[in-house]
Amino acid sequence: MIGGERYNSISDYLKKEFGGKTIKLAIDAGFTCPNRDGTCGVGGCAFCSAGGSGELASVYTPGSIAKAIDEQIALNSDKWPDATYLAYFQAHTNTYAPVEELREKYYEALADDRISGIVIATRPDCLGEDVLDLLSEINEKYFMWVELGLQTIHPETSEFLGIGYSLDVYDKAVADLTARDIKIVSHLILGLPGETEDMMLDSLRYVCQSPIFGLKLHLLNVVKGSRLYAEMPDYVSFNSIDEYVDLVVRCLEIIPPEITIHRLTGDVPRSLLVSPEWSYHKRTILNKINYELKARDTKQGVFCNRGSDLNCNPAT
After folding, report:
1. Which domains does the chain possess?
2. I need a labelling partner for 300 at 20 to 30 A (CA). Which of 30, 130, 177, 232 fits?
3. 10-19, pLDDT tens digit by residue?
């Protein structure tokens, strides 16, 4: 854990796994999304940017995974010259293609001797049996986890966002991946329109009941080019850093301590950011979270007990 053993950071986990600093190299592998190509929608989910949440990734062109890896390493090598690298297939839906194409791109990255593992971000509705078989094959040979974008458990929010899959689809994806011993990292967004804090905490408690490896908590950023910006240009998810930090600390308190924490805020280029205007101060937000954990003398999982039922509620 970091911050005086206050939460179970993925950076600490990877340092123990690989013996040093480990960095994910964000790659746009040229995939699209069923919510963009007309299969279940067009334009993406309401919160999604035109880049499919991959603006910080290096863009793929045929046969150029190595080039994308080179670009990402160059961005990080001055600060961490001896880091371990994971290939992170980030932008759009990275299991949404014929399995032969997936196999070619995944193994192209893994063939690079600088790469020690793979991370694949996808939607729960894009995990057919052939894809699961490929993921299982890779998982037996390499370090890997799969990221699932759930965002919320509430159907009214999902419908507004145009996500295009229901909670039972997420549940099946978790069950299928777990049966193959594949690590899962689930994504939730804090501050979605219409959601109260209780609703956000209900989503958090729900995902923590399943055997996930990790969790990403995203601050909702309204970004240029998104449907959310077009429909609600004045929407602000949280009025202040302190308001957001308070909620994140309370979230951490009910997350089981064995779940790795991969993200606690948002991360978009400042050129795309509309609101909250303070959210690009990522380091300030994280420092404030650590400060509040220490000030309250609290930590991840302090209100959580695992047993046959998961009880993750603040003490009364």
Report:
1. 10-312 (3.20.20.70)
2. 177
3. 999 999 999 9
What's the length of the chain?
316
**316 by DSSP, 3-state: which?**
coil
Q: ∠37-93-235 over CA atoms, to 5°?
A: 80
Residues 188 and 235 sit within 8 Å (Cβ to Cβ)? no
pTM exceeds 0.85, yes or no:
yes
Interacting residues of 110 by C-beta distance below 8 A, sequence separation 6+: 87, 118, 138, 142
What are the beta bridge partners of residue 151?
188
pLDDT digits (tens, 9 = 90+) for 117-152: 999 999 999 999 999 999 999 999 999 999 999 999
| Angle CA 90–163–88, to nearest 5 | 10
